[in-house]
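Re: the pair you flagged

First of the two:
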Amino acid sequence: MEFRAVRGVEDLIPPESEKFEKVVEIFKDVVRKAGFREVILPIFEEAGLFSRSVGETTDIVQKEMYVFEDKGGRVIALRPEGTASAVRAYIEHGVYAKEPFTKWFYVGPMFRFERPQAGRKRQFFQAGCEVFGLSSPGADAEVIRVAADIFDSLKVDCSLEINSIGCEKCRPEYRKALIEFLEQKKEELCEDCLKRFERNPLRVLDCKVESCQKVVAEAPRITDFLCDECRKHFEKLKEYLKTLDVKFTENPLLVRGLDYYTRTVFEFKSERLGAQSTVLAGGRYDKLISQLGGPETPALGFALGVDRAMLLIPEKEEERNGVFVVTRGEKAYREGLKLIKFLREKGIRAEMDHRQGSFKAQMKAADRVKAKYVVIIGEAEVEEGFFSFKELETGKQERIESLEELFARL
């Protein structure tokens, strides 16, 4: 019987796994420089955590969550996003009582039952940052700057869109105006948006169906309904982004697909990804911690789609690096084993072919693994105590008399 990976869940084998590693390493390097510390979260939680935080009316909760009952009768969900788990951990461990503000990052798989396509899988990876305890628009600007730094380090071009979706004070007025507008356009809405209209009309603004996008293009703008406090927050954010040399476009239709957002929302997009253009997205969620049982605590964050970022990294020829040790004969093989041990201890990538095939076969193996140098140990090398050293790209070969000289040469 032949087994294959479940549809929408893909293996990452080299060289794709190396792209994954590159994105994650750069992400971690950038966010650690900004003072974020890693939190490692479980990949499944009680399903109620996500329905409470993400929102009962969202597509994630209604259509996409992997939910099951475990042997203890608990309703469990594979995590569809990381913020809810981070907030739960922040509350459960009483971090709010120990630190004036907290900066966490996480990396890991998420799960959503969607139609698999480029940039959208059923198991996908996110690298996210969360900031707890800061309400300043300056914190928003810094987090967005950190996100921009990730793309700069990846050498990937993305455009930034920002918006403010207000707070519990000003959003009801906008919701009322939006309902009045959509009431006149019901016949033009898709089936999903007709349901959203009844439960959470702001979600209509997030619909990707073309007919709905045409409708919302004429809808009232939420920025016209902001209260003074939200308006000042948004204006200050824009000032600080300019101070930090972050280019942005205001998109008054940007609302994000999760219910917990307040005030600032933002997305980094790439035209190269087509319909799934959003690579990184986030915003402020000042009420979520209290909604989940913690104290009133302002918060914000973002999540980077690692799989989508990988699609933006250009394909390039693998660079040669490291050493491949070629041996001939049992004594040479033993010397080769000692040599790769020594080189690895010195931080140098070192490999050999334990099949001990012909000289030609071992050289082919060295070429296949993209080694930069070959160290040859044969009978003469063993008897006279030297190494034959060859650079694969140029074919230049030289004699090296000692281990110390070899290490210095590398």
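Second of the two:
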Amino acid sequence: MGGDKELLIEVEMSALVYPTEDEGKVIKAMQTIIPFREEDVEVYGDVIKEVVVRKEGYESLIKLRSSFRNNRVLDTARSLLITSRGRLKTLLFHKQAAYVGKVRLCDDDAMSPLGTIRLKIRYEGDPFVLADWLTPRTEKGRIVREASTQELIYGKRLEESNV
């Protein structure tokens, strides 16, 4: 493959912790979405804190990818992840649902009374390849076209690039 190199995938997840909330419980809720270690956690603020987790690599998204499939929300997740023009959007997750181990997407912050967990993905490749890997389109409940992990890593459809 010559000069091809793995593309950068950065994931940033954040949530506000209000004075009535337990910081440890918010961190536990966040781990329902993306697994991380204690040393990946940064906490900012005083009265209202913000917990931020940054990860690199597609591996951090594997658990979320499985959750979308298991919960049969691929089309919903896709519509919330990417615009028709290929711009990646921040995904919002219901904080209380995540605390009890459920991955539930929100259209906006108002859907989660104590705020949402926000997930921002930065990807150097074709955003549609990321979407086809993480949230492939479905028809009648079946996946239509799913990007391979190799396509995700190189940021392009391999059949288009004569690889």
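The longest helix spans residues 23-33.

-B.
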